[in-house]
Amino acid sequence: MLQSMYSGISGLQNHQTKLDVIGDNIANVNTHGFKKGRFTFQDMMSQQMQGATAPGAGQGGSNPEQVGLGTQTGSIDTLHTQGPTQPTNRELDLAIEGDGFFRIQNPDGGEFYTRVGNFSRDSDGDLVTADGYYVLDDDGGTINIAEEASNFSIGSDGTVTQVIDGEPEDAGTIGLATFANPEGLESLGGNLYGETANSGDVNNLEAGTGGAGDIAAGMLEMSNVDLSEEFVEMISGQRGLQANTRIITTSDEVLQEIMNMK
């Protein structure tokens, strides 16, 4: 069989994966805190037809002769660039301006991490996510706003201040987590990330310290997906898929001519 046919198949498979990544980006264009994916290609190993030779007496050197065998996935990266912030004027909607993730308690005892700060209070006054996971403070404990509090506010450093009987009281400080390689985090769905062997150890910090960003109350971070860029990438992926389809059909026509030689 012609090697070009198998090269075309590898191109079809990987361009389809590229379109899958683009489709996920576009589907999540309005998902708060979503970080877009990026697909890259790399070539596969090449068949060596002739090796390189060094210059000799009376004759120069020659370059290697190789035939490529197709393409493969280079990487699927998650780009943790800052998304635009959307004002909501809701006191428990929080956005991180800069690096870092909110720390969320995993019911199994570990921690989740998220960029989405659409928090609320449960019936006990604890700060929780939309799925009911506890939001953690800078010491790893929960944050409770008392039922009798007449008012509360959240500062840019994550400090939660509540007013009880006309007196301000500290209700805790929302903690942030940073990683040496945030792109190494594992996406768990539900706007949550988990630590991996390549994300680096978690650094638990207060907002605005140690490289962590500030917290903006009454705001939510939007997706960092740029629709115009995604549509351009979609066109590129579609044309690449069509071109690889043409490789297969052309190779098939050549094989048909060979079969008809008899």
From TrEMBL:
InterPro entries, per database record: Flag_bb_rod_N, Flagellar_basal_body_rod_CS, Flagellar_FlgE/F/G, Flg_bb/hook_C_dom, FlgE/F/G-like, FlgF, LlgE_F_G-like_D1
Domain spans labelled Flagellar hook protein FlgE/F/G-like D1: 95-161
Domain Flagellar basal-body/hook protein C-terminal: 217-261
Annotated region (Disordered), positions in chain: 48-89
Regions of compositional bias (Polar residues) in chain numbering: 62-89
Residues in Flagellar basal body rod protein N-terminal domain copies: 5-35
GO BP annotation list: bacterial-type flagellum-dependent swarming motility
UniProt KW keywords: Bacterial flagellum, Cell projection, Cilium, Flagellum
Compartments where found: Bacterial flagellum basal body
A GO CC term assigned to this protein in UniProt: bacterial-type flagellum basal body, rod
Transmembrane in keyword set: no
SUPFAM superfamilies attached to this UniProt entry: Flagellar hook protein flgE
Protein biosynthesis as UniProt keyword: no
Protein name, UniProt field: Flagellar basal body rod protein FlgG
Gene from which the chain derives: flgG
